Amino acid sequence: MTANLTLSLLVGILMGCGITLLMARGIVRAFLGVLLVSNGINLLFVAAAGPSGVAPIVGKAAESEMSDPLPQAMTLTAIVITLALTGFILALAHRGWQVRQSDAITDDAEDARIHAKAAADDISHSDFTGDEPTEDESDDPGGHRRRAADARAEEAGR
C-alpha cells in the first residue's frame, strides 16, 4: 500500500497550522485551530484508508476490490462531532463578546492568587485547618492520623 503524498502533506500542514492557532489567546483563533486540526484528522483517516475501490456492498464485487468502510464511518462521525463543537464554541465566543467586547482569554486574578498560595504552601484562609482528621477513624487502623493531630494540639497548647 502506498500513501498519497499530497494528502500526507496536506494533513501535516493542517495539523501544524491548527496547533499553532490553538495556542493563541483569542477564542476565535483557538476555535479555527480546532477546526483545522479536526479537518487534518479527517484527511488522515481518508489517507490511512488506502486506495479507493468499489463500494463495500457484498455481492457487487470481489472482496479484494472493495474499499474499507470503517475509515469512512469514522470520518463521518468526526464531521458530526466537529459540527456540534462548532456550534458550542461559537455560542461561547458570542457570549464572551457580549460580556467583555473582546475575545481575548485573560488570566483570572483569583486563579493567580490561588496558584501563588499553593506555591507558598499557605492554607491560612482555607477551610482545612489541619487539626481535625478529615476521614473516619476506621480508614486509619493504626490511628496514625489521630496521634498526629493530638501531637499538633499539644504543641499548640505549650
Automatic annotation (TrEMBL):
Coiled coil: none annotated. Residues 116-125, 148-158 have a biased composition (Basic and acidic residues). This is Multisubunit sodium/proton antiporter, MrpC subunit. Belongs to the CPA3 antiporters (TC 2.A.63) subunit C family. Its main location: membrane. It is found in: Cell membrane. Keywords: Cell membrane, Membrane, Transmembrane, Transmembrane helix. Residues 116-158 are annotated as: Disordered. The chain crosses the membrane at residues 6-24, 31-50, 70-93. NCBIfam families: PRK07946.1. It holds the Pfam family Oxidored_q2. It comes from Mobilicoccus caccae. Residues 129-140 have a biased composition (Acidic residues). Gene3D superfamilies: 1.10.287.3510. InterPro entries: CPA3_antiporter_subunitC, NUOK/Mnh_C1-like. It is a multi-pass membrane protein.
